[in-house]
Each structure stands twice: as C-alpha cells, then as structure tokens.
Design a protein that fits this description.
globular; 8-stranded parallel β-barrel; 267 residues; 44% helix; binds 2-phosphoglycolic acid; alpha/beta
Length: 267
C-alpha cells in the first residue's frame, strides 16, 4: 500500500514538468537583450524532458528574441489585450502574438493588477480570450502583505483563481503562478513552508472546484525573489512545480534556477 502511494505521488509529480519562467519586465536595450540571449544560448541546462524554460522579454524585443533564442527555450509576452484587436491604442492582441509565433503570455501579474488596476474579472477575461486563441497562459495570483497579515491569503488567491476558473473550460495550457506581492522584487522570499502551504491550498481549491485531474496536472509555480541561493530548497517542496523569476532572470544565476529542476527528477 505504502509503495503504491509512493508510486502514485511519483507519477503525479513526474506528470508536472518543472517550469521556469524568466520575466524580464520593462528592462533592457537591444544590446542588453542580445547579450542576455547569447548567454542563455550558451548555457548547459537539463533536457527538455526535465524542465520547460520560457523567457518573457518586453513586447518590442519579441521578434528579436524569437530570431536569436535557442529552440529548446520558449517565449512569453508579458500581457495581451482582453479580446480581439481593433481600436485599442497601445494594446497588443493575442492574435498578434499568435501571428508572431509567440506561444505563451503572462497574465494577471501583480504589477499590472496593482499599478494598472486590472481586476480579477478583467484578468480572467484575458486568460479566457488568450486560451481561445491558442496561447498558453502563465496566470498570476498572490496576496499583498496587508492581506497576509490579516490572514486572508487563501481567500485572496482563491478568489483570483475562481474568477479564472469561471472563464475557462480547460486547464491544459495554464500554468498558475503564485506570487506573493510582498515577495516580488523585494528580496524577501516566501519560506519554502509558506509557499508550499499556499500551493497545497490552491491545489485543493482546484480539486474541489474544478476537478481532481486538473488539480493533479496543473503546474503551480512560485514567484517572488527567487534566486540561485534559495531555488533548490523551494524546488524540494512537493507542490512547487517551478518558478517565475524576475530580477534574477536577467542575471547569469538564472541558469542555476533552471538547474534546480533536477531536484525533482532525482526524487
Ligand atoms: P522577482 O519578480 O523575482 O524580481 O521578485 C518575480 C515576478 O515579478 O515575476
């Protein structure tokens, strides 16, 4: 019986391929981007069977990165418009990303939620529309420090996830990124136990409100001050299936974060 349980949990873990996203945010010049891509192209990382790597440059550099980046790494945009393109000055549509051959998009990042006022429903509509156009989505959720201190972390991330769940019918192309707002860009990383607790909570939420299959197969990744020094300990947590990395994705240490995927494959 014990062996069976062990085997089952191993199969479940293996089914969720480790995912490392690099969110470059609003950084860099053409030269910086070329240098960063050159570095990434030269590094040795675990095989595609072990880890899926997706980098997310600013919109204007997407074609450049697509032309230069190694073929075993994929690309994500950092946002897209909520529905079909048209008279929406300054926006980039999901169709345009598809047209450029960009497979992924990050949606609901806390910087957009807080600085640009994107609500749970708006983010959820974006996720639904992007999926309907064939994009894969890194959907971000996370609580602020005040919400954590008030004890409402799970309520907040559940409400953000619920809004998304109401707008989509399949989760195959969704990676859920748990990114506590207080940990983003602050150098204040969640402890492995804090992150694992929320990841388990999210998986339970999916199990209860979507399906057991979606709960066990959806990758839930952690973001917020992940770096070379803390990634392995976080990766050891059973329900942490990878990372969304901001600051450290612009530095050589990103490769160490990618390599932390081997923590899972050697379980
Ligand atoms: P950080 O950002 O790694 O710089 O904290 C993470 C993110 O915003 O995705």
């Amino acid at each position: 019986m014990l062996l069976l349980i062990k085997l089952t949990s191993l199969v479940t873990t293996m089914a969720r391929k480790f995912f490392v996203g690099g969110n470059w945010k609003c950084n860099g010049t053409m030269d910086d981007v070329k240098k960063l891509v050159k570095t990434l192209n030269e590094v040795e990382v675990p095989s595609e069977d072990v880890v899926e790597v997706v980098v997310s440059p600013p919109f204007v550099f997407l074609p450049l990165v697509k032309a230069l980046l190694r073929s075993d790494f994929a690309i994500a945009a950092q946002n897209c418009w909520v529905r079909k393109g048209g008279a929406f000055t300054g926006e980039i549509s999901a169709e345009m990303l598809v047209n450029l051959g960009i497979p992924w998009v990050i949606l609901g990042h806390s910087e957009r939620r807080s600085l640009l006022g994107e609500s749970n429903d708006f983010v959820a509509d974006k996720v639904g529309y992007a999926l309907s156009q064939g994009l894969k989505v890194i959907a971000c959720v996370g609580e602020t420090l005040e919400q954590r201190e008030a004890g409402s972390t799970m309520d907040v991330v559940a409400a953000q996830t619920k809004a998304i769940a109401e707008k989509i019918t399949y989760w195959t192309n969704v990676v859920l990124a748990y990114e506590p707002v207080w940990a983003i860009g602050t150098g204040k990383v969640a402890t492995p136990a804090q992150a694992q607790e929320v990841h388990v909570g999210l998986r339970e939420w999916l199990n209860t409100n979507v399906s057991a299959e979606v709960a066990s197969s959806t990758r839930i990744i952690y973001g917020g001050s992940v770096n070379a020094a803390n990634c392995r300990e976080l990766a050891e947590q059973a329900d942490i299936d990878g990372f969304l990395v901001g600051g450290a994705s612009l530095k050589p240490e990103f490769v160490e974060i990618i390599k932390s995927a081997t923590v899972k494959s050697s379980v």
